[in-house]
Amino acid sequence: MTRPKHYILAVMLPFFIFSPTMLFASIIGESEGMHFKVEKIASGLGVVWGLALLDKQTLLLTERSGKIKRLDLATSVVQAVSGGATVKLAGQGGLMDVAVQQPYLPNDWIYFTYSKKHKGQGVTALARAHLVGNQLTDWEDLLVTQSATSTNRHYGSRIAFDGDGHLFFSVGDRGVRSNGQDLSIHAGSILRLNLDGSVPVDNPFVNHATALPEIWSYGHRNPQGISFDFANGELWAIEHGPRGGDEINLILKGRNYGWATLSFGKEYWGPINVGEGTERAGMENPKKVYIPSIAPGSLLKYTGSAFPKWQGDLFSGALKLAHLNRVALDDQGNAKVEERLLEDLQLRIRALIQSPEGWLYFSTDYGEIYRLSPAG
């Protein structure tokens, strides 16, 4: 169920012009009887792909162009950070996610995913570095995935930690549908590694004759949002479908999520179903499907105290349909309520994180950073 929302513009310009870059001090909205405000805290950036909180006042961000910056949340001052990798900037490729374990401490590793040029083609890579002042040091690629194709599509890629010495990161099918069912490459998979980049001994395909040991799950099209639920020990992912058929999935060890054998979407060139159907033995069913596609760019499972009625809900940024998407789950993890927030602002929301206070920070493809917090 989708419920329309109405918002009050708290401060507006004398001449009201509605556009994706509309200036405002704050807006007020309501959800589940709770009132929130949304404030723009930075603008004039590039396409901000990833966000990571280093402390309550400092936000580290990645731009698809390859730039890394830090934002002072109290003053809105932005500073450049040097020492990042050279990215293959083409199509959907570039510098993607940035992530740290919470609480972040000085000299902790900072993790990145990016598209790397490899023998003239692009691959998704996972790297880490230390931050000293505004300089990254000790940069090292932990895994340059076997995901090379001639396309510049479907790199993934988001990072999540399980709090037990492992991280997950996603790799899209790289624009080649058959990759989703091919365990001999990393494309179309969610991978699991130890924090130093080594392979955990309990990964599902360790010592498998024809599968890569880093793979945790496969049959994915382009997962651009993953989130680990520490309370329940669950990994959640959201991925782009073709024309229709975006999916939210509960990610289980070694399971096959169907792409491109199964899909709820249709071909871009006509009203023809992709794949052979929507269900098959041995392949996992999604917990929610979006038809039409919202084009999800991120995912988090809300655990904060600022909005108690949202606890346990999934949030994602929508790029195509331009809103903040909320999904409440039932006891079996299936979607029971969908709510579309901030539709009136028409923002292409990409990165999305939760602060220790339980506030939400998100970026847009218009080079802006916003904060959503309780009103009053």
Q: How would you portray this structure in words?
A:
- By secondary structure, the chain is mostly beta strands.
- The chain has a single domain, classed as Neuraminidase.
- The protein is built from no helices and 26 strands.
- It has strands at about 10, 25-30, 35-40, 50-55, 60-65, 70, 80, 95-100, 110-120, 120-130, 135-145, 160, 165-170, 190-195, 215-220, 225-230, 235-240, 245-250, 290, 300, 315-320, 325-330, 335-340, 350-355, 360-365, 370-375.
- A six-stranded antiparallel beta sheet has the order 1-2-3-26-25-24, with no helix packed on it. A four-stranded antiparallel beta sheet has the order 4-5-6-7, with no helix packed on it.
- β22 (about 325-330) and β23 (about 335-340) form a beta hairpin.
- The radius of gyration is 20 Å and the shape is globular.
- It starts with 7 loop residues before the first strand and ends with a strand.
- The relative contact order is 0.14.
- Residues about 1-25 have low confidence and may be disordered.
Q: Please tell me the overall pLDDT.
A: 93
Output the strand order for the largest sheet.
1-2-3-26-25-24
CATH superfamily: TolB, C-terminal domain
CATH topology: Neuraminidase
Order of helices and strands: EEEEEEEEEEEEEEEEEEEEEEEEEE
Distance between the termini: 28 Å
Number of helices in the DSSP assignment: 0
Keywords:
about 375 residues, mainly beta, Neuraminidase, six-stranded antiparallel beta sheet, four-stranded antiparallel beta sheet, about 0% helix, globular, disordered N terminus
